[in-house]
Amino acid sequence: MNEKYQIFARKYRPQTFEEVVAQTSIVKTIKNAIRFKKAAHAYLFSGTRGTGKTTLARLFAKALNCKNLNEDIEPCNLCQSCKEITASRSLDVIEIDGASNRGIDDIRQINDTIGYSPSGNYKIYIIDEVHMLTKEAFNALLKTLEEPPENIKFFFATTEPHKVLATIISRCQRFELKRISTDLIIKKLESISNELKKETEKDALYQIANFSEGSLRDAESLLDQLFCYSEGKITLSYINQALGFINPDCFFELDKKIFEKDSYFAFEFVEQIYTSGKELSYFVEELTSHFKNLLILKLNKNGLNFLSESSQKKYLESITYYSQEQLFYILDLLTNAISVNKNSFKKIHLETLILKIIKSKNIIPIDLLVKRLIELEKNVKIVSHKTSLSKESKTSEEKPVIKQEPQKPLSTNEPIKQEKPPLEQANKHQYEKVNFSLSKTKDIKVINTKEQSHYDTLLKFTQVELDAINKS
């Protein structure tokens, strides 16, 4: 008789701790708790979907009741207890769906059955989606959870731990499962493809892993769906067509148009996306991911090693069109647009956004502008200081030397004549007097024609910088 088909998410579910992906610290803690016989009476597994919460709870239960644990604290999967837990028919490991068994009567039934002794080492209750229990059900569980019998364990799993009562959380040891990285998801999908002897492109696997957002179960389900659609090689173009993903080539075309400053292309580009039936909010998220990859490659040349060589070449070509400051500016535009128009992204919003991205080539970053203005201010101070020094040196050189002649004795009959000061000296006193009356200060600086033209040049340069900001 032929075996029944199993979906990838169930077929490739880890049966040992070694097969668990990306949760190394949690696995080590669980193993040590079993090795040193320090297993607590209640555990709470929380994290996003598809990261292994229920899987870890089952493995923990399997290891606690396994009769042939190896030295590495791995369940044997051969004894009667392991086989029953794997087949979900063990009387000692009871799995409860918190969404459908959420009332106080369901918890009372658990409290009534706790007194029965298990056939193995422990009797374990695994409550999935525990946050769905009502407040009354939580309160009914409090006393049992605080002082359970020695051979009773509670394992809770939830995607929304903030909805669980604080009194429940305080009675549990909590494990926060992290999202699985894109590299690890790609590695797992490659192993599945190799086992099934299916040929897949690396870019195709990256597209699946990126779309799954850290959920290995979602990635495995997508790969299962693609293998059902096609018997041949799984390529990136086929994935985009079958699952409705956006072709990355359109992003590389946009990069060229941004470099060429082709503003009209914004309307053609958005019309193409709009008529293809793509969700605009999803397109903006993918566009943000594209510019994030460009920035990663700008900061680290080896940052996109998980992509194929062909995709890396395209990114290396596109990165020459942008500066690091421009990429930061574009990412800021996109993230703000997503936060503002996430629920109602319209065509006009996307057209305006693409136009701003194309015009970003002319934007002068604020930090660069401030840096230029500081340098300009320093240059002005240096020029003014040199001017004052040159003026003082000229004044000392041009100062006339007055020769003292021997005074003749005055006769009593000659009238006394008052000597008039030279004309230049008189004009000089008058010039200083005027300057004093206008500036109200003793620091007098005279600017000649050459220095004035230099100041005019610096001021024009500042005006050009400010005009560029206003136009943007």
- What is the share of helical residues? 55-70%
| Series of H and E elements | HHEHHEHEHEHEHHHHHHHHHHHHH
Weakly predicted, low-confidence segments? 423-447
What is the strand arrangement across the widest sheet? Answer: 2-3-4-1-5
How many helices? The count is: 20
How would you explain this protein's 3D organization?
This protein has 472 residues and is mainly α. The chain folds into three domains: 8-176, Rossmann fold; 182-243, Helicase, Ruva Protein, domain 3 (Orthogonal Bundle); 249-362, Up-down Bundle (Zinc Finger, Delta Prime, domain 3). The chain is 56% helix and 6% strand. It contains 20 helices and five strands. It has helices at residues 8-11, 24-35, 53-65, 80-86, 104-113, 135-146, 166-169, 182-195, 202-212, 216-229, 236-243, 249-260, 265-275, 280-299, 309-318, 324-341, 347-359, 366-398, 423-439, 449-471, and strands at residues 42-46, 93-97, 123-128, 152-158, 173-176. It has a five-stranded parallel β-sheet with strand order 2-3-4-1-5, with helices on one face. Strand 2 (93-97), helix 5 (104-113) and strand 3 (123-128) form a beta-alpha-beta unit. The longest helix is centred in the C-terminal third of the chain and has 33 residues, at 366-398.
